[in-house]
Each structure stands twice: as structure tokens, then as C-alpha cells.
Design brief:
Shape: flat
Strand content: 15-25%
Distance between the termini: 15 Å
CATH class of the largest domain: Alpha Beta
Bound molecules: iron/sulfur cluster
Helix content: 40-55%
CATH topology of the largest domain: Cobalt-precorrin-4 Transmethylase, domain 1
Largest sheet: 5 strands, mixed
């Protein structure tokens, strides 16, 4: 914590790159060093600055939807699968085009995929708390012929329950980066309506720690600055958690975006960053905030 007269800045201990993202970036850099060129399926992480840096080193980004690859040949090329993982159909599509799949799926995401597959094989209707548009969820949906139900919020859960008819046996899991409170509220709602319900918490521990810390900081701060890509779901989730605590929040991708006017009248400022935000970027924002004061 930095203190100047009547002014405090607290930087979150749990911010910056998570282990899964660090591993994916290391693997991308290793591939580029050995080959000079490699593909990734979608941006390796949801942080434009980091991705631009990898592109300068030779990374080419494939659209996530293979129907947009046209007649692209990938014979002998390497295609990196990012930490969110992919489904079997896309994996097959890459192989069919002659490329080597280099798999940087985060082990925690892989565990969630395995849990989901196991629950479906046991005959449960799978409900996943998460964002249906997130690549991690798309990779899971790609595995099943009977689509699981994906519920982003308790409101969506209520709507699903009211729509009926409800399956008699339901298993509930989560996107690894979903909000912990959202997960528990959806589970609570479903538990009061479903005859047999099995709950497996597949939330990532690293994300839980980050979210809990953001909430604690928010309760003691006048303003929270969340650093991270606007396309990063876990970064936006941090901002939502802070908002839920009733604390003003600003999200910036870089220190240059930090608008001095938002600090006016604020004494206690907390700074945190998403899983795809480099530690240096969080530090740069902290230095900028101190400079403005
Ligand atoms: S947030 Fe958690 S699950 Fe997602 S990549 Fe990072 S460590 Fe893995």
C-alpha cells in the first residue's frame, strides 16, 4: 500500500497473469522461437497489447469459426490452442488440414471439461453457469449432441425454471471464470425446483481468490481501477463484482487510458487486474495514479 497525505493506493495481491495464461504465452513464445511462425485459434489471450506483441514475433491468428478458413492450407504448420480449450470438431478440422495441434488448454479448464463429460455420461442434464458466447463454453458445447443449458445469471436461471418442463436429474457446474456468487445463487434457485441435483464446483481457485480480493478492496475503497482487455470476460467480471459492492469502478486496458478526472475527490483507490493482464501493466497504472495525485 502506498500512502501520501490523506491518500491511499492499494494494489491487489491477486492480479495479473494467472498460471494458465502464463503457460499459454510461454508455449506461444516457444513455438515462435523454434518455428518463426505459428497460428493460434483466436487471440491467445484477451489482451490486445500482448497479442500484438506476439503477432510481431510471427503469430498468425485464425478465426475461431473454421467456416471462415476457406481453403486455407495448414500442412506442416503448428496451431496453438489457447487456455480456454477447443471442442473435438474444431480439433479434427485442424488435423484434417494437416496441422499439428499444440495444446495450451489450462489444466483447470481441462478438468472442468472432464467433469462435464462424466456428468453427462451418468445421465444428468448438464447446466453450466457461464457465458454461452465465451470460448471455454463453446468448446464444451462442441462435445455434446444433447446441448447443455448455459445460464449466465440468476435471472436466466429463473427464466429457464419458469419455462419448463424441467429435467428430473440435473448436474450444475461452472465456467472456470464465472462469478462465485452467481454460481451459488443459480445453484440455490435450481435446488428448490429440481428433484435430483448434483453440484460440482469447477470454478478456478485463482479466479475465486482474485474476485474475493476485489470485493474486499471495493468495500474499503472510494474507487477501484480494473486493468484488463475489454474483450476479457474475467476482467469484466471483476468490474461487475466491484459494482455489486456499490463502489465506483473504471476499467482501463493501459496506463495511458487512465483519465485523471475520475480520481477527483477519491481518497482510497484500489487497483486490480484480470487474468490476462500483465503484472507490469497493473504496476504502470499504479504509478500513473500516484503521479496524478
Ligand atoms: S483463470 Fe484459472 S482456469 Fe482460466 S486459464 Fe487462468 S488458471 Fe486456468
Amino acid at each position: 500500500m502506498e500512502k501520501t497525505e490523506g491518500f491511499e493506493i492499494v494494489v491487489a495481491k491477486h492480479s495479473g497473469f494467472c498460471p494458465g495464461v502464463k503457460r499459454a504465452i510461454r508455449m506461444a513464445e516457444g513455438l515462435l522461437e523454434s518455428r518463426g511462425k505459428a497460428y493460434s485459434l483466436g487471440p491467445v489471450i484477451h489482451n490486445p497489447k500482448v497479442v500484438e506483441n506476439l503477432e510481431r514475433k510471427g503469430l498468425l491468428i485464425l478465426p475461431e469459426d473454421p467456416s471462415r478458413w476457406d481453403d486455407l492450407e495448414l500442412i506442416g504448420e503448428a496451431v496453438l490452442i489457447r487456455s480456454h480449450g477447443i471442442g473435438p470438431k474444431i480439433r479434427e478440422e485442424i488435423r484434417k488440414r494437416g496441422a499439428e495441434v499444440v495444446d495450451a488448454t489450462c489444466p483447470k479448464v481441462r478438468r472442468a471439461q472432464e467433469v462435464d463429460e462424466e456428468l453427462v455420461s451418468q445421465g444428468y442434464h448438464l447446466v453450466i453457469v457461464g457465458n454461452p458466447e465465451h470460448p471455454e463454453i463453446k468448446a464444451i458445447l462442441d462435445r455434446f449432441t444433447q446441448p447443455p443449458t448455459v445460464l449466465p445469471t440468476p435471472d436466466h436461471a429463473e427464466a429457464w425454471l419458469n419455462k419448463g418442463p424441467l429435467p428430473p436429474r440435473v448436474a450444475v457446474t461452472a465456467q472456470t471464470t464465472a462469478g462465485e456468487e452467481t454460481f451459488h445463487r443459480v445453484v440455490e434457485l435450481l435446488s428448490s425446483h429440481i428433484a435430483e441435483i448434483k453440484v460440482v464446483d469447477t470454478l478456478c481457485e485463482v479466479t475465486k481468490r482474485r474476485q474475493r480480493e476485489a470485493a474486499e478492496m471495493a468495500r474499503a475503497a472510494d474507487l477501484i481501477v480494473v486493468v484488463g482487455g475489454r474483450n476479457s470476460s474475467n476482467t469484466r467480471q471483476l468490474a461487475r463484482i466491484v459494482e455489486g459492492c456499490g463502489t465506483p469502478v473504471v476499467q482501463v486496458e493501459t496506463a495511458e487510458e487512465m483519465d485523471p478526472s475520475v480520481l477527483r475527490g477519491k481518497r482510497r483507490i484500489g487497483i486490480t487486474g484480470g487474468a490476462s493482464t500483465p503484472d507490469e501493466e497493473v504496476k504502470k497504472v499504479a504509478i500513473k495514479v500516484m503521479g496524478i495525485r
